[in-house]
């Protein structure tokens, strides 16, 4: 089983496990061994799955404004955790390839392996939920047909993205691509970088 096959299997296990309770406040019960890549991938997708449903909830037109504000802050915190885990996955790959010497003409990819994996995790959620819609008995036949067409596209995208990720990892391992990682440096959660936050502090 190659990397993306393993990742896809782990992502879908996380999604299935979440939907046992289908509760954004449910505690994660990660089944994989400590320090294993599978454990990291499971944790990453769990965050994505919870956030997927938080985004659904906050779009309720009748939501209480105070609840919506709290949800927005929860989503912001979740985004930060997601970014931290993506960077942690890249650190795992950096360690894996630390003894690889890139070729003199090695190229630099537009995204790191972990950010591509991030897209694969989100894609697993899209496939899961579009499949539900394509098979929802209470929906119209037209709705199901439209969702099936979209699902077919998503599954093709999954194959293409998986191939691209596996090729990227092979190219890094062979020295044809140089793995270079930049921190995301998100600013909106940082009291010293978000002007709305630091100006408030100066006014006190």
What are its keywords?
204 residues, mainly alpha, two-stranded parallel sheet, 6 helices, 2 strands, DUF4254 domain-containing protein, DUF4254
Characterise the protein shown here.
The structure is a single chain. The protein is mainly alpha-helical and 204 residues long. The protein contains six helices and two strands. It has a two-stranded parallel ribbon with strand order 1-2. α1 crosses α4 (113-134) and α3 packs across α4 (113-134).
Concise structural overview:
The mean pLDDT is 92. The protein has helices at residues 3-21, 37-58, 65-96, 113-134, 141-173, 195-203, and strands at 107-108, 177-178.
How many domains in all? 1
Helix fraction by DSSP (H/I, runs of at least 4): 55-70%
Biggest sheet: strands, sense, closure?
2 strands, parallel
| Secondary-structure content class | mainly alpha
Q: Using the alpha-carbon principal axes, give the shape.
A: globular
InterPro entries: DUF4254 (IPR025350)
Pfam families: DUF4254
Protein name: DUF4254 domain-containing protein
